[in-house]
Amino acid sequence: MTERVGFIGLGIMGSGMAANLLKAGFDLTVWNRTPERADALVAAGARRAATPADLGAQCAMIFSCVSDTSDVLEVILGEQGVIEGAAPGALVVDMSTISPQGAQTIAAALAERGVHFLDAPVSGGSEGAARGTLSIMVGGPADQVARAMPCFQAMGATITHVGGHGDGQTVKLVNQILVVGTMLAISEALVFARASGVDLEKTLQAVSGGAAGSWMLSNRAPQCLRRDWRPGFTIDLQQKDLRLVLQAADEVGAPMIVTAQVFQLYRALQAAGMGQEGNHALIKALERLAGVEVGTGEG
Q: Which CATH number is correct for 171-290, 2.30.30.280, 3.40.50.150, 1.10.1040.10, 3.40.50.2300?
């Protein structure tokens, strides 16, 4: 824990991740575009940087977790980005979900300054970020993965070095294909159960322990029954990830039949003003088609 650690991006995921680094004893400096989001961490002992460049100058290991490829490019390679402050030998670790090509572009630009890079997107929702149980998919050189491992272990329970620069992002897109496909199946199943008149709580109890069981079923289906649309991950962010999936799949010629359907269903929900609801609100699109509503909002 001798290297000073920086964290950029204190949103729904980054705030919990940064808090776990601080709890683990790391000397932490933080920056967020909306400064007040850093207040709780600063009160708990973190330093506040003036800009990403300032953070880069203070820290030997810099983590970022922001919304989209353009945001990552700005905070790392922009006019006041990390690259303007980071010293040769520093390590930048981006934990956002961006395009694989974007990760490779950042790695190449940093390498010209002698700065190392890892792409390390995460899965597990805001719950995993808060609990330090995220799954982290890492692309980049093995020696830098080992260097960052103590920090990864403070934020995640499953850390997998999947390959070179950009490969972490590709594996995260695989994850998102599975997430939305599973949520669509859960939505269909719950709407069918509701239309058929069976007890939904008992139905979940019956199927969760068998072959149909999954993290999404265990964590998101109960929220659907409670009509609890608080996000572990918002529709807007999920839709951004699906755009990345569809772009990457088009480049390699992979069919995205279910993913493309979910993209269109989320688009309809966004048009209805639901973009900030949790991605499990996908079920609302099927409820509208079926003319039924799953759950009562109770419990």
A: 1.10.1040.10
Helix (H, G, I), strand (E, B) or coil at 118: strand
Predicted TM-score of the model (pTM): 0.93
- Residue 143 neighbours by CB distance under 10 Å: 8
* pLDDT tens, position by position, 230-255: 998 999 999 999 999 999 999 999 99
Rounded to the nearest angstrom, the gap between the alpha carbon of residue 263 and the centroid of all alpha carbons in its chain is: 17
Active-site annotation, residues = 172
Locate all alpha helices (DSSP H) within the chain, ordered by sequence.
Answer: 14-23, 39-43, 52-58, 69-77, 100-111, 125-131, 142-155, 167-196, 200-208, 215-226, 235-252, 257-271, 283-290
Nearby residues of 204 by Cβ (< 8 Å), 6 or more positions away: 217, 221, 222, 225
97 and 172 Cβ atoms separated by less than 8 Å: yes
Topology of the domain covering 5-164 = Rossmann fold (3.40.50)
| Angstrom distance (rounded) from CA 30 to CA 51 | 9
